[in-house]
């Protein structure tokens, strides 16, 4: 809700003035996650987290993957909480957090310095376009609820495939729509309420894009049942326990707008049309 952040992307193709901007057409991304958004989302989801589930959901995404001594890329790192959790918990040699938005990258760098993890966790801000890394740079590419911001799934998976080493792995969570074709009116209402650059696609579309890029061992796993319940708890906390604190951190209009957004989101979670999904695949050995 990475953006290229855990919630803000736009890395390979973003919508601007109803026209697609693609690789080679470099533009600065307009920030969608400024300080007020970060304060609000971190109150709800935890320090440094701009997407739901906290450390437990990150560990589910990475379950069974040994990152010891590996080089990891976190696409859509947001304000750095997830990147730093991976750095501290999974013992990679390095982890690079990447985002298009300068405010979240600045926050992530401050957080890494405070945690004493800036020797192994590096944060890079880059304009939309080709991923700013050499071929075969990483053992694992990770992303948490950020690729929803990239409409062109073929382009992003082609880039992920390029920067992975042979035998490297992709492991992510993202916000998907359950079907191809026209979204329901309730889904359109939810996306409009979010007001973010969502480029939702189905599990089938993600799998096709991974296969087209050259990936094998492709797995998609719906997390709708989990987040349907989690979002209901979040909405209750927003309207009750956290309301006054959220207003103090942001302002009343902002909080009320997000309560309306969560209410719209709950409808499409309950219908099953909004299906957060875990994604995995592998780049074949050379």
Structure overview:
There is one protein chain. This protein is an alpha/beta fold. The protein is built from ten helices and nine strands. The chain has helices at 35-45, 54-61, 81-89, 102-115, 153-163, 185-194, 203-213, 224-239, 243-249, 252-271, and strands spanning 14-16, 19-21, 71-75, 94-99, 121-125, 138-144, 164-177, 216-222, 274-282. The strands form two sheets. The protein has a seven-stranded mixed β-sheet with strand order 5-4-3-6-7-9-8, sandwiched between helices. Helix 9 packs across helix 10 (252-271). The longest helix has 20 residues, at 252-271. The radius of gyration is 18 Å and the shape is globular. The model is unreliable at 1-29 (pLDDT under 50).
Secondary structure layout:
Elements lengths: L13 E3 L2 E3 L13 H11 L8 H8 L9 E5 L5 H9 L4 E6 L2 H14 L5 E5 L12 E7 L8 H11 E14 L7 H10 L8 H11 L2 E7 L1 H16 L3 H7 L2 H20 L2 E9 L4
Helix pairs in contact: 5-7, 6-10, 8-10, 9-10
Shape: globular
What spatial order of strands do you see in the largest sheet?
5-4-3-6-7-9-8
Rg value: 18 Å
Strand content: 15-25%
**How many runs of DSSP E, i.e. beta strands?**
9
Give the helix level as a range of percent: 40-55%
Structural class: alpha/beta
Distance between the termini: 35 Å
Low-confidence stretches: 1-29
Order of helices and strands: EEHHEHEHEEHEHHEHHHE
């Amino acid at each position: 809700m990475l953006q290229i952040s855990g919630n803000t992307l736009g890395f390979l193709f973003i919508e601007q003035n109803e026209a697609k901007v693609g690789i080679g057409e470099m533009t600065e991304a307009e920030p969608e996650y400024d300080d007020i958004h970060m304060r609000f989302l971190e109150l709800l989801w935890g320090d440094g987290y701009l997407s739901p589930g906290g450390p437990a959901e990150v560990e589910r995404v990475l379950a069974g993957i040994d990152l010891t001594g590996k080089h990891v890329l976190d696409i859509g790192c947001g304000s750095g909480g997830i990147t730093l959790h991976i750095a501290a918990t999974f013992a990679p040699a390095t982890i690079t957090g990447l985002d298009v938005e300068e405010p979240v990258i600045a926050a992530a760098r401050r957080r890494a310095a405070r945690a004493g993890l800036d020797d192994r966790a590096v944060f890079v801000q880059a304009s939309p376009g080709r991923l700013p890394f050499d071929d075969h740079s990483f053992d694992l590419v990770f992303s948490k609820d950020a690729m929803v911001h990239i409409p062109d799934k073929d382009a992003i998976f082609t880039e992920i495939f390029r920067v992975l080493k042979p035998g490297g792995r992709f492991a992510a969570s993202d916000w998907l729509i359950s079907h191809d074709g026209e979204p329901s009116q309730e889904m359109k209402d939810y996306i409009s309420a979010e007001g973010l650059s969502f480029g939702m696609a189905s599990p089938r579309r993600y799998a096709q894009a991974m296969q087209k890029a050259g990936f094998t061992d492709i797995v998609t796993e719906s997390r709708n049942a989990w987040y349907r319940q989690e979002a209901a708890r979040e909405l209750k906390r927003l309207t009750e326990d956290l309301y006054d604190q959220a207003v103090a951190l942001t302002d009343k209009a902002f909080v009320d707008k997000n309560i309306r957004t969560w209410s719209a989101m709950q409808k499409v979670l309950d219908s099953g049309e909004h299906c957060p999904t875990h994604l995995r695949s592998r780049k074949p050995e050379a």
